[in-house]
Amino acid sequence: MVLMVPLIISACEPPASNEAKATEQAKAAEQAKAAEQAKAAEEAKAAEEAKAAEEAKAAEEAKAAEEAKAAEEAKAAEEAKAAEEAKAAEEAKVAEEAKVAEENNDEIDPILEMVAKVESPAVKVQVMGNLAMARLLAGEIAPGMQVLEQSLVLIQGIEEVKLQLSVAENLQDALVGFDNVEEVSGYKKRLGVIMEEAKVKSDPTRRLTANIKTTDGKVKFLGALADALFQAGDKTQSLMVLGHAQEVASELEGSKRIMALSHVASSYIRVGLEKEGGALFRDILSAVAQLETKELKLETYERLGDELDGFDQNELMQGLMNEISGNLRVIRYQDDPSLLLIDGIEDVVGRVHVLSELAISLSEAGNNAQAAEVLSKAGAIISNIEDGAMLAASLARMAVAQARMGKGEEAKQAFKKAEEVMAGIGGVDNRLTALDSVLVAMQDAGIQEQTQWILTQSIELSVLIQGRAAGAMRHAVKIVDGLEEGNVKALAMQQVAEGLEKASLVGGFANLYFQLAGLYHHGNQLEKSMKNAAECYEKAAREGHAAAQVALGIMHLQGEATLPDVKEAVSWFQRAADQGHAEAQVSLGMLHALGKGVEKNLVAAHQWVSLAAAQNYAEAKAALAELEDKLTPAELEQSAELVKNWSVSGNAAVSGPEKVKEGEAPKAK
């Protein structure tokens, strides 16, 4: 009940109280209306300001558009003015050319206008070339050159490379008779640049040699490439490369041209084109005969002889070698006939012996001056001998001549020097060989001062030899080595090899097996047998004979004894390359580059070729120039690091079998 009291009180309030409340409510309503109107006024003001801003922005954009339009119109007006000026300049130029043509009674422009209607670029250039030559012949140099310049533009615009080259070559040939015109000479040089660029684009071999600086280097590289292509079975490509090599070589002059062409001729022979190679060698010999000086002829003949040295089993090449040898003798000894006596003697000891005997004969005939001159030539030969055994024997031979000529004191000094040389000779066989020669010479000279020393040496050597079958066989090998080249020596080598087999002797006879392998391989004095050649090469190769390892690798590569086995070839090339054999290193590098028998690896290829190039191996230098363009800087750096590591790892560089001592194994890696 208490909760109902306020309601009752409210219901019992007087009317005045209700009026006050109504007034309050009316006042509140008035205030709300005023606030609403103020808000509306504020919103209207904001809308007005927004509209004004929008109109200002539109006005700004309109102004910018107007300015842009004005700038565009100004630019267009400027371009129109430039075009007008260019047109005026062109018209002025045409007017000037017309004036020149009129002054020279020239009809070039109408003709060129007709030429412009011809669709074929080749025909256009041909017609324009004829027109230009007509002007040049008439002495009108400027009009003629004007036509030639326009033809040059046409040639440059020909997209087909072969057509561009053909058109340029035809124009170049047509201008041969105008070389005395300075403007034409300059034009032909620019035309030649276009031709060379077209040749490089059309011929992949030109791209390969583009970065090789020297012409001789290009020829050697192309020859090596042709050999590799031929061995890989691509005869067509090989011949194309050789054709390019001959073209490049022909650009040289004098002895350089001769030697470059000789490389090409050798490559022709190696790929089976004996007729072409022989004909080229004939041309080369004719060119040598035309050289200016005796010295240059001698040098060139000697270098050609070295080039032909690898073809001693080829009948055609053998004839050329004999001709070269004959020419050399005629030139070399025309001023000194006495040297003809020793021309065919390869053994230096034999040469000294012949000259010594001649000196003795001249002395006995009373011609002491000439005898002394001949003996001085023997002394010159001796001064260049490095081998101890040969030097001791040669000194002994000369001492005999001195003694017989009455120069006893000089003879004793020569024997004394021979004794000193022998004291430094290593190896029982070498000492024994030298001792035999010195002993015979001393007996011929009748000098006894060194007899006791000789006897002591003989006894010591005999003791060392007794009971040593291997030593005895090595002595037999030395005897065989002293025989004259021919059937007798070949059969003796075969006999020694059979004796080694029977005695089960291995090691220390690498050079014998290597030489015997060569006789079987080429059919020299012994019946040709690839099987026997491969067996002998392998025996020498397993003793560490680097040249034998290379030869065996080539046989496996070419399948001469068995089916081709590239992996086996790689194995033998690797062994020889590890010894520092330059040819092996290049062969191994090329196989790495081609991915033959090994995984393709340009870094490894660059490493091996770099090592060969460091030995001044010519083919390596040419191959290296080509490889360097195919490697990234990082790969080249990696190759250089490999070369450095290889060089300091104890590998001894050798270039051939002569640097691997007989009986010694190669240095281990």
Can you walk through the features of this model?
The chain is mainly α. Helix content is 75%, strand content 0%. The protein is built from 30 helices and no strands. Helix 11 packs antiparallel against helix 12 (274-289), helix 23 (510-522) runs antiparallel to helix 24 (530-542) and helix 25 (546-558) packs antiparallel against helix 26 (566-578). The longest helix is centred in the first third of the chain and has 89 residues, at 15-103. The protein starts with a helix and ends in a 22-residue tail after the last helix.
In short:
The chain has 669 residues and is mostly helical. It has 30 helices and no strands.
- Rg over CA atoms, rounded to whole Å, is 48 Å
* Helix and strand composition category: mainly alpha
Shape: elongated
Q: Kindly state the percentage of residues in helix.
A: over 70%
Give the mean pLDDT. 76
Model regions low in confidence, pLDDT < 50 over at least 5 residues: 1-13, 104-108, 652-669
Biggest sheet overview = none
Name its key features.
disordered N terminus, 0% strand, 669 residues, 30 helices, 75% helix, mainly alpha, disordered C terminus
Please write out the topology.
Blueprint: H1 5-11, H2 15-103, H3 108-115, H4 121-137, H5 141-156, H6 161-174, H7 182-202, H8 204-208, H9 215-231, H10 235-249, H11 254-270, H12 274-289, H13 294-308, H14 315-332, H15 348-364, H16 368-382, H17 388-404, H18 408-423, H19 428-445, H20 451-465, H21 469-481, H22 487-502, H23 510-522, H24 530-542, H25 546-558, H26 566-578, H27 582-594, H28 602-613, H29 618-628, H30 633-647
Helix pairs in contact: 4-5, 4-6, 5-7, 6-7, 9-10, 9-11, 9-29, 10-11, 11-12, 11-13, 12-14, 13-14, 15-16, 15-17, 16-17, 17-18, 17-19, 19-20, 19-21, 21-22, 22-23, 23-24, 24-25, 25-26, 26-27, 27-28, 27-29, 28-29, 28-30
